[in-house]
């Protein structure tokens, strides 16, 4: 996933969180608590790679669940 975030929004929450592996969700929640809004764009602005094997996908999902 990818995101475009205003620098002032990141600075207002003290920068990117480093205490979690789900920093994307953590960042969004902290910003919304301070009144920043988010929007979903139905346009591909970034690309990435998918896991090649099911076991790698499961490991990735487990890390995300631990937060």
UniProtKB/TrEMBL annotation:
It is an enzyme of class 2 (transferase). It comes from the Bacteria. It is a multi-pass membrane protein. It comes from Gluconacetobacter johannae. Its EC number is 2.4.1.12. PANTHER family: CELLULOSE SYNTHASE CATALYTIC SUBUNIT A [UDP-FORMING]. It is found in: Membrane. GO terms for cellular component: plasma membrane. Transmembrane segments: none annotated. The keyword Transmembrane applies. Keywords: Glycosyltransferase, Membrane, Transferase, Transmembrane, Transmembrane helix. It holds the Pfam family Glyco_trans_2_3. This is Cellulose synthase. Residues 1-45 form the Glycosyltransferase 2-like domain. One of its GO terms (molecular function) is cellulose synthase (UDP-forming) activity.
């Amino acid at each position: 996933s990818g995101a475009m975030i205003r620098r002032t929004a990141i600075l207002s929450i003290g920068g990117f969180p480093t205490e979690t592996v789900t920093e994307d969700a953590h960042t969004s929640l902290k910003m919304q608590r301070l009144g920043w809004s988010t929007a979903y764009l139905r346009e591909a602005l970034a690309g990435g790679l998918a896991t090649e094997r099911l076991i790698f996908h499961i490991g990735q999902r487990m890390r995300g669940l631990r937060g």
